[in-house]
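Each record in this resource describes a single protein on a pair of labelled lines. An example record follows, reproduced without changes.
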Amino acid sequence: MQTEYCVDTSVKVAFEYGYQLIVPEGAVTTFDGDDIPAETINEFYEDIWEERFADVLDYKHIF
């Protein structure tokens, strides 16, 4: 699953259904784009989700 497609949609739909989400920081993945590296894409989406649609937490705080 790519961050910018499946994961992003799942996070936003779950939010709309009223779920409280926790996304482990760095636990998403994608491919490098033509101009944007995968790491930048993942960080971008984690920033969008944080405090809007989900809590993006370090895995140490989850387990």
Notes: The beta strands are 22-24, 55-57. The radius of gyration is 12 Å.
